[in-house]
Design a protein that fits this description.
Blueprint: E1 2-11, H1 15-34, E2 36-42, H2 47-53, H3 61-65, E3 70-75, H4 84-89, H5 92-98, E4 103-109, E5 125-131, E6 141-144, E7 151-154, H6 160-175, E8 180-185, H7 193-205, E9 212-217, H8 218-227, E10 234-237, H9 239-253, E11 260-264, E12 272-276, H10 293-305, H11 309-324, H12 338-351
Parallel strand pairs: 1-2, 1-3, 3-12, 5-10, 8-9, 8-10
Antiparallel strand pairs: 4-5, 4-11, 6-7, 11-12
C-alpha cells in the first residue's frame, strides 16, 4: 500500500470544520478504493497560535513541512484578533514562496446540480493559472511621513523567470485541454509591467504551434467572465489579476464555498499546497453550516497532483451526484449541514 505523507493545517474558522470532514472522505477513498494510505501530521498553526506565541508558525516550521508529500490547508485568518496582512504573510504567503509554489491553479466549472447566477445556462469549464510568487504581491515598498503628508509605495516586481514559468505551465495545460490560452493584461494602463508580460507571453506561446492565443485587458476579461464564460479554456494571469478573476469565477459557479485551489511547486524540490478559495468565514464558524465542497474539490486537485486521477474523478462526480439530488448546504439554498453533506457523500462512495 502506498503511503502519502500529508501535512494538515486546519487553520482558522470553518477550516476547523471542513478539513476534518474532508480528511474522513480521503481516508474512506483510500480504504475502499485506492490501495493508498494517508499518514497525517496535524499542525495547529493559526491565529490561536499567534495569540499565544506572537507568530503564525514556529521558527522551524518550514523544516517540519518540507518533507511531506503535500500540504492540505483549511483557511487562515481571524481579522478581529489578528490583522489579515500579519496572518497571511506569517503563514500562507510565506509557505508559497519558501516552497517555490510559483503556480496557483484554480478551476472554474459549472457543477451539475448548482444553478449559476448567470442568465445563460451554457456550461463552462476553464482553469485560471495564476502567477503565485511575485507581481503585484511583491513585498517591496514602504511608507513615510504622517497625517496629510503620509505616503505609501508598493512596487510590483515581474521577473522573466517567474513569468516564463507560469506562462509555460499554462501553455502545457492548454495543450492537453482545448488548446486555447487567454492572457490577462492591462498594458494600456500599466506602462512597464504589462507590456513586459505581453512580450513574454508572445515569445513563450510562439513555441506552441496551432494553439489559439489571445490577450485581453483585465477589465474586459472580468466582464467576459459574466457574459461569456463558456468561451474560455485556460487563462494565465499575474498574481493580483488571477486572484480577482478567480473570486469572480467562484461567484459565477454559485458560491465561493465551492471553489478550490492548488499551489504547485513545479521543480519537485518542495511539497505543493492545496487550499480552498473561501477563506476562514468567521461569521459562520462553529455552526456546522459551512459548505465542504471547496475543501473536497481541493482534495480532488491534490489527488490529481499525486497521480490518483481515478479517485479524484470519483470524488468530484459523487459530489455532483449529491447536488443533483438536492443535498446542499445553506449557501446553495439547501438545509444540510457540513457533517450531513459529508456523511451522505461517504455513504455514496461506499456504494460505488
Amino acid at each position: 500500500m502506498g503511503k502519502i505523507n500529508l501535512a494538515v493545517l486546519p487553520g482558522d474558522g470553518i477550516g476547523k470544520e471542513v478539513v476534518p470532514a474532508s480528511l474522513n472522505v480521503l481516508d474512506l477513498l483510500a480504504d475502499i478504493h485506492g490501495g493508498i494510505e494517508f499518514e497525517k501530521t496535524i499542525y495547529p498553526w493559526n491565529c490561536d497560535y499567534y495569540m499565544e506565541y506572537g507568530k503564525m508558525m514556529p521558527d522551524d516550521g518550514y523544516d517540519q513541512l518540507r518533507n511531506h508529500d503535500a500540504i492540505f490547508l483549511g483557511a487562515i485568518g481571524d481579522p478581529k484578533r489578528v490583522p489579515d496582512h500579519i496572518a497571511l504573510w506569517g503563514a500562507l504567503i510565506n509557505i508559497r514562496r519558501e516552497f517555490q509554489q510559483v503556480v496557483n491553479l484554480r478551476p472554474v466549472k459549472s457543477l451539475k446540480g448548482i444553478q449559476s447566477p448567470l442568465r445563460s445556462d451554457a456550461p463552462f469549464d476553464f482553469v485560471v493559472v495564476r502567477e503565485n510568487s511575485e507581481g503585484e504581491y511583491s513585498q517591496v515598498g514602504g511608507s513615510i511621513h504622517r497625517d496629510e503628508d503620509e505616503i505609501a509605495i508598493q512596487t510590483n516586481v515581474f521577473t522573466r523567470k517567474a513569468t516564463e514559468h507560469v506562462i509555460s505551465y499554462a501553455s502545457e495545460l492548454a495543450k492537453n485541454r482545448g488548446n486555447k490560452l487567454t492572457s490577462a493584461t492591462k498594458s494600456n494602463g500599466l506602462f512597464y509591467s504589462m507590456p513586459f508580460w505581453n512580450k513574454v507571453f508572445t515569445e513563450v506561446t510562439a513555441k506552441h504551434e496551432g494553439m489559439e492565443t489571445e490577450l485581453i485587458h483585465i477589465d474586459a476579461l472580468s466582464a467576459y467572465f459574466v457574459t461569456k464564460p463558456e468561451s474560455f479554456d485556460v487563462i494565465v494571469a499575474s498574481n493580483l489579476f488571477g486572484d480577482i478573476l478567480t473570486d469572480i469565477g467562484a461567484a459565477i459557479m454559485g458560491s465561493i464555498g465551492i471553489a478550490p485551489a492548488a499551489n504547485i511547486n513545479v521543480n519537485g524540490k518542495y511539497p505543493s499546497m492545496f487550499e480552498p478559495v473561501h477563506g476562514s468565514a468567521p461569521d459562520i464558524a462553529g455552526r456546522n453550516i459551512a459548505n465542504p465542497i471547496g475543501q473536497l474539490w481541493t482534495a480532488k486537485l491534490m489527488l490529481d497532483h499525486l497521480g490518483h486521477t481515478e479517485l479524484a474523478s470519483m470524488l468530484l462526480s459523487t459530489v455532483e451526484d449529491l447536488l443533483v439530488d438536492g443535498i446542499k448546504t445553506p449557501d446553495l439554498g439547501g438545509k444540510y449541514g457540513t457533517t450531513d453533506f459529508t456523511d451522505e457523500l461517504m455513504k455514496r462512495l461506499k456504494e460505488k
